[in-house]
Amino acid sequence: MEEIVKSITTALARGVEIAAAMVIGIASVRAIVMFLGNYFKKLAPKKISIEDIRLSLGRSLALALEFLLGADILKTAVAPTWNEIGQLAAIAVLRTALNFFLDRELRNNEVSRSAEPRG
User: What is d(CA 7, CA 12) in angstroms, rounded to the nearest whole number?
Assistant: First the structure.
């Protein structure tokens, strides 16, 4: 029974990792298309600021980091060894720190942009 649960959990973790990769891939392609649209001005009827492109990509990367952390938790959910728990702790700390600083930068950027006079 434990092997069946472990197999299902591992498959779920792989699915979540694939979802994270898709989020990163789609967001990256979208950012490139927006950048190139600005560069060539033919693809975009309205110019999008580099900061808007960065914010959009940053939000997607933060989401992908959350997915990856969830996948790591799923991988170690069933009968983990102490080595796996240690690895999960290290990965969780790194990904959480990355997400924290990315989120802080996104919020600071959004606040500073909303404080700018429009006109």
Answer: 9
Q: Supply the DSSP symbol for 118.
A: P
Model pTM score:
0.77
**What angle do helix axes 50-75 and 2-40 make, rounded to 10 degrees?**
170
DSSP assignment of 7-57: HHHHHHHHHHHHHHHHHHHHHHHHHHHHHHHHHHSSS-SS---HHHHHHHH
Helix 82-115 to helix 50-75 angle (10° resolution) is: 160
Backbone angles phi, psi at 117, to 5 degrees: -70, 135
Separation between Cα atoms, residue 51 and residue 64, nearest integer Å: 20
| pLDDT profile of the chain (119 residues), mean per 10 | 86 96 97 87 71 89 91 83 88 88 85 70
